[in-house]
Amino acid sequence: MIKQVQNQRNQVDDEVMKEFCKDADLCPMYMVRVYLHQSLHNYQKCLEMFFKIKIIKQNVFAWLQDIQMNIKTQPDRGDGQVTTYAEMQELVLKNIGSFIEMDADSTVKLCD
Q1: How do the domains of the chain map onto residue ranges?
Q2: Helix/strand/coil (H, E, C) string of the chain?
């Protein structure tokens, strides 16, 4: 399902993606929900889902590493909505308590 959404992402504008997000928030396909919010750069919403939903909680550190790598290599989209690496680090620091509560060792690696 995620692959299908990824393949269509460039053909769908942000307004349609926002509608998908609203619909997806009512379904149990958690990683699809994360991906939809991720595609709109709603990283705080993604983190909230990881923190609240036990079945995907363990994936947060791998997801965050992937996001940080993508942000480092992502070209400017020209719309002024590019999330910088520094902004992502701020988001991590804002949620540091939740990360430490989940896995202190992985949190230390995140902050390196």
Answers
A1: 1-40, 57-112
A2: CHHHHHHHHHHCCHHHHHHHHHHHCCCCCHHHHHHHHHHCCCHHHHHHHHHHCHHHHCCHHHHHHHHHHHHHHCCCCCCCCCCCHHHHHHHHHHCHHHHHHHCHHHHHHHHC
Res. 20: pLDDT tops 60: yes
User: Which residues are CB-neighbours of 94 under 8 A, at least 6 positions away?
Assistant: 44
First to last CA, the chain: 33
Distances (CA, A) of 3 to 20, 32, 89, 108, 109: 15, 10, 27, 31, 29
- pTM value is 0.72
pLDDT at 21 > cutoff 60? yes
Q: Exposure of 33 by Cβ count < 10 A (0-12 exposed, 13-18 middle, 19+ buried)?
A: buried
pLDDT band at 84; cut points 50, 70, 90: confident
Please answer whether residues 82 and 76 qualify as being in contact, where contact means their C-beta atoms are separated by less than 8 angstroms: yes
